[in-house]
Structures are given as structure tokens and as C-alpha cells.
Design brief:
With 236 residues, this protein is an alpha+beta fold. Helices cover 28% and strands 21% of the residues. The chain has two domains: 19-159, 3-Layer(aba) Sandwich (Glutaredoxin); 177-232, no CATH class. The strands form three sheets. Strands 5-4-3-6-7 form a five-stranded mixed sheet, covered by helices on one side. The protein has a three-stranded antiparallel sheet with strand order 8-10-9, with no helix packed on it. α4 (160-176) crosses α6 (225-232).
């Protein structure tokens, strides 16, 4: 017997499921329209709700910061286009929160009344709600591959500095062929992949004089913050 509560969720390393949709910024063909860019695709439960309003104001206020990191933002809820438009207008004209006011949301917000896209991305989780999307976040790279996912329940607003940190860490790992340790921020030491049974990373890695090894499997090296950011961020 089919489990009606079973949720299909794209996994890290999967190609982002394709779809076409109507948005507040026109029609999109996803992820094809974003080839060459990183994308954060995220869902929210409903328009005209307080947690979602605080999130959209925060994302909109940080949009340029994400764009500088070669990342586009795409939002989604199961509300209709006219609801989206009215809600975003209300945010701009009426809401002042934590010093943010006159906030205009310029990134696309997908209409998904049929829940087709939300279901493709595992955003409808019946144990939480069968009629609203949870707060899902998908980090999708320039080749359309899902690189990280984060899910939050309806009641929990997201930490947007953490979303930005994840984006920068993923790009740093790609650019420098390293990994990033717990709580990593640009300028912190990065982790050098271990060399396996043939010797320590320090024995086999260029620039080994800068490395610190805690054991054969755990070596770090510094990468200057400016080097990280100049590699990742677009030039003004």
C-alpha cells in the first residue's frame, strides 16, 4: 500500500529537477535560465504571514550581497501570482522591521498553486503541513547540480548570514580544492584533503610549509580572506 506521507526529495549531487513557472518577474525555465550562476531556490509557507515577511525583507535587503557572489535568488510558495504581488506591495509600502523599510523584492517569486514544483522539490511535507510548503533551501551550482539543502519547519525563520556562509564555503571548496571546518568564515584556515595511506597531506601538498597537521588525516592551511573573496566575488 502506498504511503501517502512519503516525500520525494532531490538529493545533494542530483540535477535540479527542471520546471517552467510563472513568477512575479515573468516566466522562468528552471534551472536552464540560470546556467552559469549559482542559485538559491527557497520556499515559504504562505504570503501575508509574519515569519515569511521577515524573511523576504531580509533576503531582499541582502540580494545585492548574494548577487556579488554570483548567486541569484528564486522564491516559491503555493499562493497565486496576484497574492504574491499584493503581499510584496504591502511589504514595500507598509512594513518597517529592524530598520528595514521601503523594501522592494526584485527577485522572482514563483506561483505554485498546483504544488507541482513544491512536490518535485520535497517542499510539501505532510507531517508538518499538507497545504503549505516548509522552509526549504536549495543551493544549486552553475551546472544545475544541487550542492546543499536545508529544511526548516513553518515556525522557524532562517538565518540568512548562515545561508550566505554556506554559499561562500561551497564556492571556496570548489575554487581551492579544499574543505571547510566547523563554523568556517572567509579568512579562517581550510582543511586539506588527506592523502590516504600513501602519506600525510603535508608530505604531498604544495605549500606544505604553511600547513598544520593534527594527525595524518587532519591538516589545515591558511587562505587569506582577501584571496578568497577576490576569487569568488564579482568585481564592482
Amino acid at each position: 500500500m502506498e504511503n501517502i506521507n512519503q516525500v520525494s526529495m532531490p538529493r545533494i549531487g542530483d540535477q535540479a529537477p527542471p520546471f517552467k513557472a510563472v513568477t512575479t518577474q515573468g516566466d522562468i525555465n528552471f534551472p536552464q535560465d540560470y546556467t552559469g550562476d549559482w542559485v538559491i531556490l527557497f520556499s515559504h509557507p504562505a504570503d501575508f504571514t509574519p515569519v515569511c515577511t521577515s524573511e523576504f525583507m531580509t533576503f531582499a535587503s541582502m540580494e545585492e550581497k548574494f548577487n556579488q557572489a554570483n548567486c541569484k535568488l528564486v522564491g516559491l510558495s503555493v499562493d497565486g501570482l496576484y497574492s504574491h504581488i499584493a503581499w510584496l506591495r504591502t511589504i514595500k509600502e507598509k512594513i518597517e522591521y529592524k530598520g528595514m523599510k521601503n523594501v522592494e523584492v526584485n527577485f522572482p517569486l514563483i506561483e505554485d498553486i498546483t504544488m507541482e514544483v513544491a512536490k518535485k522539490y520535497g517542499m510539501i511535507q505532510p507531517g508538518e503541513s499538507s497545504t503549505k510548503a516548509v522552509r526549504a533551501v536549495f543551493f544549486i551550482d552553475p551546472k544545475g547540480i544541487i550542492r546543499a539543502t536545508i529544511y526548516y519547519p513553518l515556525s522557524l525563520g532562517r538565518n540568512f548570514e548562515e545561508l550566505y556562509r554556506v554559499l561562500i564555503a561551497l564556492q571556496t571548496a570548489d575554487a581551492f580544492s579544499v574543505a571547510t571546518p566547523a563554523d568556517w568564515q572567509p579568512g579562517d584556515d581550510v582543511i586539506v584533503p588527506p592523502a590516504g595511506s600513501c602519506g600525510t597531506a603535508k608530505d604531498r601538498m604544495e605549500g606544505k610549509e604553511d600547513m598544520k597537521c593534527y594527525d595524518w588525516f587532519f591538516c589545515t592551511k591558511p587562505i587569506d580572506k582577501e584571496k578568497v573573496l577576490s576569487t569568488i566575488l564579482k568585481k564592482p
